[in-house]
Amino acid sequence: MALLEAKRITAGYGETEILHRVFVKVNEGEIVSIVGPNGAGKSTLLKTILGLLKPREGKVILEAEDITGLDPDRIVRKGICYVPQTDNVFASLTVEENLEMGAFIRKDNYQNRIQEIYTIFPDLEERRKDRAGKLSGGQRQMVAIGRALMLEPKIILLDEPSASLAPKLVRLIFQKISEINRSGVGILMVEQNIREALRIADQAYVLAMGRNRFHDTGQALLNNQEVGKLYLGD
Ligand SMILES: Nc1ncnc2c1ncn2[C@@H]1O[C@H](COP(=O)(O)OP(=O)(O)O)[C@@H](O)[C@H]1O
Ligand SMILES: [Mg+2]
Q: How big, in percent rounded to 5, are the helix, strand and coil portions of the chain?
C-alpha cells in the first residue's frame, strides 16, 4: 500500500516555478531515495510534502488521506517528520534536551522512547548531557534523526543525511537509516552520495531541473548505463 504519494507537484518560490508535475511514491516499509544534480528541486520537494511550501498544483497523500496544503504542524502530527539538511539541532541544548524538544506535542510519558533512541544511537546516550553544538557532525546528524523519531512517525523525510560526513560515518548513517526502516518507519531521503543512496533504496527517483527523469528500483538505477554516465561518473 502507498504510505506517501506526491502527485503531479508543481511548486516554487514567488514567481519562479521550480517543480514541474513531480511524482514520488513511498510504499509501506520502503526506503525511497531522491537523487539528482544541485538545484534540481529535491529539497523543495521535501518542503512541499511537509507543507512548508504550498503546491500550486498536485496532491500530497498520506495513507489515502489528502494532506495537501495543511500547515506543517498538522502534517507532523499526522506522522511525517522532517530532518532538514542544515541547522537541524539546537546547538545550545544538550543531546537529551534536543530529544525532549522532539517530543513537544506528546502528552504521554516519552522516557521510553528516549531509551529506544539511545538503543539505536548508543553514542548519544554517552553524550546525553553534552551540548549538541559540541558534538561531531555525525553525532549531530544522529541527534537530528533521533529528534525526528521522538514522535514515532510513519515516515521521515531526510535531506542529505550524509552531507559533509567522512566516508566511515556515511556508511554508519546509512546503516542506521536501514535499521530505522526495519523497525517500521518509511524513509524518503534526498542524497548526494548517489551510489550509497541507490544501494539501500527499494525505489529511487532521479530529479533534474524540477522534473522526474528516472524512476526504478535502486538496484536497477545503479545498473542503468545512462544514470551511470550522467550521475555516477561511470
Ligand atoms: N527559499 C528560496 N527562494 C527562492 N529560490 C529558492 C529557494 N530555495 C531554493 N531555491 C531555488 O530553487 C531551486 C531548487 O533548489 P533546491 O530545492 O534547494 O534544490 P536541490 O535540493 O535539488 O539542490 C534552485 O534554483 C534554488 O536556487
Ligand atoms: Mg537540497
A: 40, 30, 35
Model confidence pTM above 0.85: yes
| Cβ-based neighbour number of residue 133 at 10 Å | 12
Q: How would you classify residue 176: left for phi > 0, otherwise alpha for psi between -120 and 50, otherwise beta?
A: alpha
Q: Quick check: helix, strand or coil at residue 15?
A: coil
Q: Cα(187)–Cα(200) distance, rounded to whole angstroms? A: 11
Q: Name every residue whose Cβ is closer than 8 Å to that of residue 27 and which is 6 or more positions away in sequence.
A: 1, 2, 3, 186, 202, 203
Cell 502528552, residue located: 107
- Ligand 1 centroid to 216 CA: how many Å? 25
Query: Which ligand 1 atom is nearest residue 42's CA?
Result: 22
- Ligand 1 near 42 CB (within 6 A): yes
Q: Give residue 210 CA to ligand 1 midpoint distance, Å.
A: 10
Q: Are 185 and 31 in contact (CB under 8 A)?
A: no
Average pLDDT over residues 193-211: 96
Q: What torsion, rounded to 10 degrees, do the Cα atoms 74, 80, 84, 88 define?
A: 80
Ordered structural domains, the chain, with CATH = 2-79+153-231 (3.40.50.300), 86-145 (no CATH)
Quick one: pLDDT at residue 189? 98
Q: How far is the CA of 69 from the centre of ligand 2 (A)?
A: 21
- What pLDDT, on the 0 to 100 scale, is given for residue 46? 98
Asked if residue 39 has its Cβ within 6 Å of ligand 1, the reply is: yes
Positive or negative: CA dihedral 206, 211, 214, 219: positive
